[in-house]
Amino acid sequence: MIRYEITRADLEAQIEAESPGWLAKAAKRTAACRKKKAFDGGESIWSDIKPVYMRLQHNKCAYCERKLEGEPYGRVEHDVEHYRPKNGVKAWPDDRIKAERKIDYEFPTGRDWDQGYYLLAFQPTNYITACKSCNTPLKANYFPIAGTRRGPQADDPARLASEHPYLLYPLGNLDDDPEDVLTDDDPEDVLTFDGIVPKPVKRSGDNRRRAVVTIDFFELDTREELLRGRAEAIWALKFALIVAESDLSPTDKTLAERTIARLQSDQRPHTNCVRSFLRIYRQDHPRAEKLFQAAMDYLESLDAPLGTLR
Ligand SMILES: [Zn+2]
What we know:
The structure is a single chain. The chain is mainly alpha-helical and 310 residues long. It folds into two domains: 1-153, no CATH class; 176-310, no CATH class. Helix content is 41%, strand content 6%. It contains ten helices and four strands; from the N terminus they run H-H-H-E-H-E-H-E-E-H-H-H-H-H. Zinc ion is lined by residues 61, 63-64, 66, 130-131, 133-134.
């Protein structure tokens, strides 16, 4: 995960440009939810503004950083995801997830909450776009929190900080930065990568727990598609680094430097992983070599040996 910078004013301006009158419609629907004391069950108008989020996130899933297809055909691959569920919330992890993931936390993760966050059903800062794998089987109607109680009902997510959510909200500056972006010890950083494997930035404390839960929740450390994508990104990066540091022609070296810059851009898939690898490469070369080898070994373990391909 990485942060996608946007101010609230800019987000609203882009929403209105995409779907004129959307914010007024959303305010009406929020009023209806407030009156009903529940999600109003009406039309999913958030789909109208899906392209805004797709563009802001460079067509990447907010949670797993996979790159999906963009417009005009990609809309179907992206779901507008309510960060805080608009309907009832189920406690996470349930018994099945605990058994499958071997989860045994010594800290609380929140209870069921039948009313759900109905005042956030039409709140643009409660939306992001996610891939179907992250959204449907995994995110579902779960929202683990460290706080002892959910709520209060509020139409502004900033009023819900006392819940201490575990999952990261990567749009704008409402939440901590998911990524280890600074070289100094930023207390806000949460999630980094050791090669293709996600891990917490911190050794202890709240943000370590946030990383542990986020990794478990979205199964970021075991999904083959994600591990493969990260391994391929590290593979490309390593070869660009070899060329950039070689005695090849200035033209080749420039090409390699452009490749390195491109691979770590926000627009690419698995940016957090690529930037983490680059940081390790610059700080601890032998460690980076081992991680690169592990990434290659992983790719080779997935694919048929080259000699057998026709
Ligand atoms: Zn995803």
